[in-house]
Amino acid sequence: MQTLPKERRYETLSYLPPLSDAQIEKQIQYILNQGYIPAIEFNETSEPTEFYWTMWKLPLFGAKSTREVLGEVQACRSQYPTHYIRVVGFDNIKQCQILSFIVHKPNRY
């Protein structure tokens, strides 16, 4: 059994190694399959006390494919490489955020 190194954990899936684009695509496919609306958010910090993130453009209401969402993730990464970026899934029936996960952590070393 291996002890995890002392490191700050952020959100859902944060105990895993960084997700590849293929793994992110599977998570986004789940969001779309459930009928949730994907959105991309970014912030300079991922502190647990930080409740408000800036939304990248508008939620992707008309997104039909994972490639559309992943393209916006890539655009956000290139625009804000020093920020944390996450994908969020909104439920339009319950009117709330159902899930979110970090897709980009900046290198601050």
UniProtKB/TrEMBL annotation:
Annotated localization: Bacterial microcompartment; Carboxysome
Record-linked PANTHER family: RIBULOSE BISPHOSPHATE CARBOXYLASE SMALL CHAIN 1, CHLOROPLASTIC
One GO term describing the cellular component: carboxysome
Family indicated by similarity: Belongs to the RuBisCO small chain family.
Domain named Ribulose bisphosphate carboxylase small subunit: residues: 9-106
CDD domains xrefs: RuBisCO_small
Protein name: Ribulose bisphosphate carboxylase small subunit
Annotated function: RuBisCO catalyzes two reactions: the carboxylation of D-ribulose 1,5-bisphosphate, the primary event in carbon dioxide fixation, as well as the oxidative fragmentation of the pentose substrate in the photorespiration process. Both reactions occur simultaneously and in competition at the same active site. Although the small subunit is not catalytic it is essential for maximal activity.
InterPro entries (alphabetical): RuBisCO_ssu (IPR024681), RuBisCO_ssu_dom (IPR000894), RuBisCO_ssu_sf (IPR036385)
GO molecular function terms noted in the UniProt entry: ribulose-bisphosphate carboxylase activity
Subunit structure, as described in the record: Heterohexadecamer of 8 large and 8 small subunits.
Keyword list, A-Z: Bacterial microcompartment, Calvin cycle, Carbon dioxide fixation, Carboxysome, Photorespiration, Photosynthesis
Keyword Coiled coil: no
